Amino acid sequence: MAGSDSAEFDTFYIAAVRRVVLYLYAACGDRAEAQDLAQEAFARAWQHWPRVSAYDDPEAWVRKVAWRLMANRWRGLKRRIAALARLGPPGSVDSPTPDRVAVADALQRLPKAQRQVIALHYLLDMSVNDIAVSIGAPAGTVKARLSRARAALAEHLAEKEVTSA
User: Fold this and answer.
1) Does 98-164 carry CATH code 3.30.1660.10?
2) Fold for domain 3-87?
3) Which of 10, 52, 65, 150 has the smallest number of CB atoms closer than 10 Å to its CB?
4) Which of 63, 11, 8 lies closest to 41 in space, CA to CA?
5) H or E stretch covering 114
6) Percent of the chain scored above 90 by pLDDT?
7) Closest CA to 60 of 33, 34, 41
8) Cα separation of 132 and 143, whole Å?
9) Is the pLDDT of residue 2 over 70?
């Protein structure tokens, strides 16, 4: 867009933004939401400024777009509420078992490279060769890291058993 279009849009924006936000605030009751909707509507006006600027009342176009954006958000919210009502309340989430906590703690104590190969191998069920390709390391390096990680995990978990017994 030409510089004059930019200056013309800036002048329009400065003159209209307060009124549009006030209008939306009165309609939705949430100032932050009104500001977000107004910004989105003005962004769309900027994208189509050569056409919008030719209208008799570009601000009316922005208000109409903002109103539609607000209505779409409300429809989306209504759909989410209806879906939640159909699905019911979320089920309770059990606390992690002591064993799971111990394993997670032991994993965090491993060096990053060992933790990476353990996660890829045991959690994503990747072969040594697939891991090697994925991380860009030789297969022998992956095997060594897995071996060291297993030994370190066994040691960390044995420590946990001794301290908790």
Assistant:
1) no
2) Rna Polymerase Sigma Factor; Chain: A (1.10.1740)
3) 10
4) 63
5) helix 112-118
6) 52
7) 41
8) 9
9) no
